[in-house]
Amino acid sequence: MGEIRSTCPYCGVGCGVLLRATATGVEVRGDPDHPANRGRLCSKGAALAETVGPEGRLLAPMIGERAADWDEALDLVAARFRRTIADHGPDAVAFYVSGQCLTEDYYVANKLMKGFIGSANIDTNSRLCMASAVAGHRRAFGTDTVPGLYEDFELADVVVLVGSNMAWCHPVLFQRLMAARAARGTRVVVIDPRRTPTCDSADLHLPIAPGGDAALFNLALAEAARRGLLDRDRLRNIEGVEAALAAARATDPGLTGLGPQQLAAFFDLWLGAEKVVTAWSMGINQSDTGTDKVNAILNLHLATGRIGKPGAGPFSLTGQPNAMGGREVGGLSNMLACHLNIEDAAHRAAVRGFWAAPALAERPGLKAVDLFRAVGDGRIKALWIMCTNPVVSMPQADRVAQAIAGCDFVVVSDMMAETDTMRLAHVRLPAAGWGEKDGTVTNSERRISRQRPFRAPPGQARADWWQMAQVARRMGFAGFDWDHPAQIFAEHAALSGVAGALGSDFDISDHAGITRAGYDALAPFVWPANAHRRGGRFFADGRFHHPDGRARMIAVAPQAVAGPMILNTGRVRDHWHTMSRTGLSPRLNQHMAEPYLEVHPDDARRLGLEPDGLARVAGQGRAALLRVLVSDRVAPGQPFAPIHWTGETAAQGRIGAVVEGAADPVSGQPALKSGAVAVAPFVPAWFGYAVAARPFRPDCAYWARAAHARGMTAELAGGHIPADWEAAARRLFGLGPGLQAQVYADPSRGRTRLAFIDGGALVAALFVDRAPVAVSRAHVAALLGEPAGPALLSGRPGADRPDPGPTVCACLAVGLNTIAAAIASGACPTVAALGDSLGAGTSCGACRPELAALIARHAPLPKEAAE
Ligand SMILES: Nc1nc2c(c(=O)[nH]1)N[C@H]1C(S)=C(S)[C@@H](COP(=O)(O)OP(=O)(O)OC[C@H]3O[C@@H](n4cnc5c(=O)[nH]c(N)nc54)[C@H](O)[C@@H]3O)O[C@H]1N2
Ligand SMILES: Nc1nc2c(c(=O)[nH]1)N[C@H]1C(S)=C(S)[C@@H](COP(=O)(O)OP(=O)(O)OC[C@H]3O[C@@H](n4cnc5c(=O)[nH]c(N)nc54)[C@H](O)[C@@H]3O)O[C@H]1N2
Ligand code: SF4
Ligand SMILES: [Mo]
């Protein structure tokens, strides 16, 4: 069979992939012809084949704990929604969907809720992600338009990354930027309170005070005016210039937390180049002043005319593969479809007519935070959650869990049988996943690409659009009888033509007549795509989408984030959100295997936190237990924790439970990066490390488990010491009393080591210590299934087999110790030399910033050599 062209299901870069189905799964490589990545993939894209196995999939619709067939499940969902609406009105039901839905899924959900049920209570996890960018764009431009293209990162002279850890979160676009930097000397500025891996490849890192971004961009605007750099022609077509300038001039530089030299360096770089791209993501959006921060950035680009030109413009990096597509179809509760406004009567009339909608929603629905509040207090009585895991990812996550648990009727559609949200559903619907689904996604540069299946879904799993359309039909609604996503795409494209005629930027009416064959062959394209305009940048002509054609500058009064301990949260390189898929990949689990709290050495000293010990992080009256990572990459008072651990993968790793998430008044997006917390050491009676050939679920105060190529590994810690470690270990691993055990115990040091042997091979091992267990994880886990030798319990390889240490390069599985040794020997003074001798960093390149940092740390040479 030939290769199938599809798109990576992870980040908003939207890389093209080539898939070849094999007897056991799939081979994945970067599509050299896809304009987003030209063949490149990052570690997550390269590991896709490891995440499409049957493990954990939900295979049949479940009503309670009983497997049902689709007819019964869909009839039940339709009946319960119909009855709830009849008894309590349309606003008593809600959908909560996701930027990982395909455009076709999203379109159907939005049409059903806003056109036929007659409520706008459909919101999406994009509220946690893109809502402030959307609101900022709409305020400035009149519509939610990302003006630029990826090639602008390659054409710019200065690229500013603000609130973005691009090296880890948009790795392939970052590699494109790094290639341009190597070729033409692009200057890169990173604005982030943390010194992230992205900073390691930057010319200037500004460790901004949390929330200080609006002040910084305001000050740059005032400085631009002072230097006479405002674009007088452009200003004539902008409203609100004077007020914005006045607010900028009144800004207190103290709010940025930066010194005069740092500010001057930034102004010189930004204002000294015509071709500047300012790209931002969650460090800007996820704030209770996120919309103002976005507008402070847009103000500066508008006022200096650096917008809509090759190599110049503001650029909102989208997170999820279809965050942009969801915005196009109107997945947010305050949008209509195709960038039309729900508040506008003419827009509503057009959509009503096009859909022949019996009950078009008249006003915006509830935004995510309020939506779950309404679930909690019983105003919403029937809820359908699709393709997202809010019990982990929402702020106040325990309250969200309680709300869902208390709701009369909850449907969850997911690929996986067990997620923290799935566990609370009355009806669980098995969703087709990546590799099985057929549809389109839109990436950060407005490029629409096809996802194509390489196999049929397992069991009875079905596409999300099909599930929604079936329920709509069973509720008695007409207009939902597609039998292929191509028809939905065509309908959406036709509606976009109607929207375009009303002035919407989103118009892809070129494709309104697309056939099944045309859809199957559809090549990636950038919108708009219609008789007037195809692709390209917006606003080059100085015209905007407000009714008067003018842009708006917004007067922004910056505010500081206050508090002695501000919890910053975000992502790690090799995991995707709640890990339901990346957690299946042993390679990806090697990079970071535990939930952790990164704290500055001063905080650690002050609070009595031990390196590698445990910390209790409390906020909202809830706590998480995390491994302590002491590091000066974070500032004092600004600890950082990753978002990826769940009730499935850790005892108390759900960081959403401790985040309050006050919402931005304009966008409704919660502040997910600035929760007030208290941090204290958690001192357990024992620490443990366990490995087993078969999956196990620990039950102690602290645990974090991860899939491994040979089974499963777990870090453990407990409050009290069991009377009999051997019995406790057998319970932990589910092993009978018959199985042979090797035991080593040193009670004086609180040390016990147990290995269980079956048929001469190691099946499980437990290492217990009073202090954090010092064994080579990589070595011990690799012994699973191997013949049990005498040195099994030493926990270290013999002198002949050096310990590679934790994995740094996930693609080629090169460990930290191996790399550090190569650097220290003087043989590898550069990242390129490490690649030549060890292969590290030569595949996806995502670890190159870490390699550069390791060179800086271990090399007998000055840092410049690492560049
Ligand atoms: N590996 C990986 N990649 C991903 C994802 C993933 O789960 N894993 N998820 C995807 C999704 S959905 C998204 S939304 C994107 C997110 O991509 P990013 O936004 O790049 O990722 P985050 O780690 O959430 O946050 C970015 C940075 O914001 C900084 N920050 C915190 N507060 C402030 C502040 O006040 N000002 C500034 N300037 N910075 C601040 C944090 O220190 C952090 O380094 O990543 C996408 N890509
Ligand atoms: N504190 C804090 N919280 C955050 C963030 C942060 O930075 N800090 N970031 C926020 C952001 S930007 C985001 S985007 C969210 C992400 O948060 P979530 O959306 O909750 O995270 P995912 O793990 O991606 O959830 C997707 C779910 O859908 C399932 N799934 C995958 N494919 C399909 C499919 O095709 N159909 C269906 N029906 N299901 C499927 C997966 O198994 C998984 O359970 O988290 C937000 N929460
Ligand atoms: S950068 Fe990585 S995660 Fe993002 S789309 Fe490309 S391969 Fe996938
Ligand atoms: Mo996101």
UniProtKB/TrEMBL annotation:
Asked if the record carries the keyword tRNA-binding, the reply is no
UniProt keyword Metal-binding, yes or no: yes
Query: Which InterPro entries does the protein's record reference?
Result: Asp_de-COase-like_dom_sf (IPR009010), BFD-like_2Fe2S-bd_dom (IPR007419), BFD-like_2Fe2S-bd_dom_sf (IPR041854), CT_Nitrate-R-NapA-like (IPR041957), MoPterin_dinucl-bd_dom (IPR006657), Mopterin_OxRdtase (IPR006656), Mopterin_OxRdtase_4Fe-4S_dom (IPR006963), MopterinOxRdtase_cofactor_BS (IPR027467)
Q: Which SUPFAM superfamilies match?
A: ADC-like, Formate dehydrogenase/DMSO reductase, domains 1-3
**Similarity remark:** Belongs to the prokaryotic molybdopterin-containing oxidoreductase family. NasA/NapA/NarB subfamily.
What is this protein's record name? Answer: Molybdopterin-dependent oxidoreductase
Classification via Gene3D superfamilies: 2.40.40.20, 3.40.50.740, ADC-like domains, BFD-like [2Fe-2S]-binding domain, Dimethylsulfoxide Reductase, domain 2
Please give the organism: Ruixingdingia sedimenti
Write out the entry's keywords from A to Z: 4Fe-4S, Iron, Iron-sulfur, Metal-binding, Molybdenum, Nitrate assimilation, Oxidoreductase
Q: Which cofactor does it need?
A: Mo-bis(molybdopterin guanine dinucleotide); [4Fe-4S] cluster
Query: Domain named 4Fe-4S Mo/W bis-MGD-type: which ranges?
Result: 1-56
